[in-house]
Structures are given as C-alpha cells and as structure tokens.
Design brief:
Blueprint: H1 12-15, H2 18-21, H3 26-46, H4 52-64, H5 73-79, H6 83-94, H7 97-100, H8 109-145, E1 150-155, E2 158-164, H9 165-190, H10 209-220, H11 234-260, E3 268-270, H12 286-307, H13 317-345, E4 348-350, H14 352-364, H15 368-375, H16 381-398, H17 402-409, H18 415-420, H19 426-438
Antiparallel strand pairs: 1-2, 3-4
Helix pairs in contact: 3-4, 3-8, 3-10, 8-9, 8-13, 8-19, 9-11, 9-19, 11-12, 11-13, 12-13, 15-16
Keywords: Lyase
Protein name: Adenylosuccinate lyase family protein
InterPro entries: Fumarate_lyase_CS, Fumarate_lyase_fam, Fumarate_lyase_N, L-Aspartase-like
Amino acid sequence: MPGAVADSAIYGGLFGDAEVARLFTDAAEVRAMLLVEGALARVQGELGLIPAEAGAYIDRASREVQVDPAALAAETARNGVPVPGLLAAFRKEAGAPEMMRWLHWGATSQDIVDTALALRLRRVLEIWAARLDALVAVLGVLAETHADLAMAARTYGQGAVPTTFGAVVAGWGRPLLRHRTRLEAVRADVLQVSLSGAAGTLAAMGGRGPEVRAGLAEALGLADPGAGWHGERDGMAALAGWMAGLAATLAKMGEDLLLLTQTGISEVRIEGAGGSSTMPQKQNPVGPSALVALSRQVMALAGLMTGAGAHRQQRDGAAWFTEWLTLPQLCISTGRALALAGDLAGRLRPDAAAMARGLEHDSGTIWAEALTFALAGRMPRPEAEAKVKALVGEALAQGTDLRRLAARDWAGLDLAAMEAGGVGQAPAEARAFAAAVSLPRP
C-alpha cells in the first residue's frame, strides 16, 4: 500500500481526486505564492510605499519566472516554511537586484502561505459547489420519479412502517441543500487575505498597513478581514466542520445503499457494481463502501484540523504544521466523496418487486401501526394496541398475513384505505425536495 493512497497509480481511481489534488501540488503552491508576492508589490507601489517601478517589475516577474519546487526543499526543512527559499529563488530568477530588493516588503512568511492557500481554496470551493449542485439535481429526479414507490422503512434494522423510495432519497438530499447554503458562509470564513507582518502589527509598513491589506484583498479578489489572523484559525475550523458535516451526510447515503443492496434485501441495484476474483455471482457495492470509508476519514481528520486551532501566542509552528499535514488530504477526500456520490446517484436502480416483498415480510406485520390507528376509531387506543399486538403474535406464529387476520376479526374495516394512507407524507416530502432542488438560487 503506498503512503499517499490518493496519489497512487493503483488506488487513485478509487480514492483520489485529480481535479482537487492539482490545487495542492508543489507547483500550484509556488505559483500561488508568487502571485501573492507580485500583487503585494504592485499594491505597495501604487500606494507609494515602495517605488512604483519596482512594484510593477516584481508583479510582472511573479507571472513570468519559473521556480523549481524541489530547489526549495533544503531551505524549507531548515526554516519550517518555503517562503525564504522562494524569495531567494525569485530574486535570482528575476534579476534586477535594485528592483527586487523591495520584494516581500513588510510581510512575513505566514502572510504569503495563508493568502496563497486562500487563492487555491477558492477554486476548491467552486469545484465542491458544482458537484453538490449536480448531486442534488440527480437526487431530485430520483425523488420525483419514485415518490410513490412504496418500500419498508426500517428502524434499528427492523421493518417499521411503509415509506417510499422517493422519501428515502429526499432524506439523503435535504441535508445537501443545507450544506450548499452553509458553504457560502464558509467562503466568507476562509477566502480572506492574510497580511499581518511579523507578529500581527504591520509595523514595518509605517501606518500604511491597513491600506495595503485592503488593496491586496481587492487585487486578489479576496476579502479584507480588517486585522491579522495568524493565530485565529476559526475559519479553518469552520471549513473542517463543514467537511465533517458533509461527510456524515454522504456516509448516511453510503450506509443505506450498503444495506439496500445486501443479498436478501436487494431493493436497489447499482449499475456497474464491482466484481470478485473468484465468485462470479457477486455484485459488490464498491462505490458505497468507498464513500463510507472516505467519509469516516474526513470526519476523523476534521477533528485533527479543528484541534490545530489552538495556537500559542501570535504564531505557532506546531499548530500551523498540523494544518499542512491535514488539510490537503481532507480536501481531496471530500472532493472524491462528492464526486463518488454523484456517480453513484446516477447508477441507482430501485427494484419495485423486491420492495413489495419487503412490505410483505414477516406476514405483513409492517402494517401494525396503521392497523392500530384504524382500530383506534372504534375503541380506546390502548385497547387497540393490545389487540394488534396479540394479532401480530398470531400472524408470526401461523405465517398468516396480518391484514387477513384483521379482516377476520373486524368485518367492515376498510383495509384498502388503511393501505392507501400507509405511506403518510412520504410522497409529498419526496416531491417537496424535488421542487426545492429545482428552485433558482438567490
């Protein structure tokens, strides 16, 4: 097993996400840091904090120079951050020492690294939003199409009352709509410029620091937080918390599919399911299994990411390094889980016959609650409950359908009406979710 499973040539197709992973490569980080340095110099030049020609030169050079990430390894290992090595390589490649001496004026390494991260996270959040929209769109169609397809609802793994497959799908999808809304708040939390200087005071900019920070935010299309946030990691914790919440929702979908595709239930089929090396009959639910595993990993890593928010004093290398070790894998696994859920949703095929058999399992005793309330119109409810409980025991012992026994004991009881209303609000809830998916976004 390789050390980085998501990047593995063997396992990457199962656990990796190339589109998101590209934003966490060495090349992507170096390019983002150079863009931040260039924009910082340009803004400072426009404000007169450094010579305007120097600012323009540094900005142009930041878009043109090529820095080999491997050349930064030794300096990064020694300094704990890639920025000192990057600055040295940038100055060497750009030439013009008189211009380049104004590079990185009044900033510190964490300003550059965190702002470069925000630039890359912006694209990550765009990818997630698009995948969420695609996923809920497919679930909306499934919910509408199968709003009336009756099946057994199960609690504690046992048949409870009838529901519909459309309502089950809506149960997967409604939280995703809420996660999509919450994602906008997460954008505001993390897509912020970081410019604090050595310890949050911006003293080296001689009172012009707030202007520079505002200008840098505008130049990069990020928000200006109005202060430094080197040790304030609640935004990163909010991002991790959002990923954990989403993962729990996707895991629920995966767990349900593992049960619904299980031999003996087989109420849902997944087109293109996995095969076995020795058992040709197997249709293994590989997708749901991977979805659950990825979600568990995300939820665990989110806790580690949240704990990294406990920074010492103005800056804490240990806490910051913990973010570096955790966040890329968190984002890659979240992205893969979203992509996988969307793929799975498009390959689900409910089996109406199997669902009908599920409703008839255990001699139709799934109708016990509905029968109790039907009888409660004729007698006190406690008496109705006692009679139905006794009838359930008889049905199970004799293998006789509960409804047949009810017809025997209570002539004139409208069992057809009872069954017609047995799914309750399930169809309406399925259609309401489908309608919510189709509503335009504000």
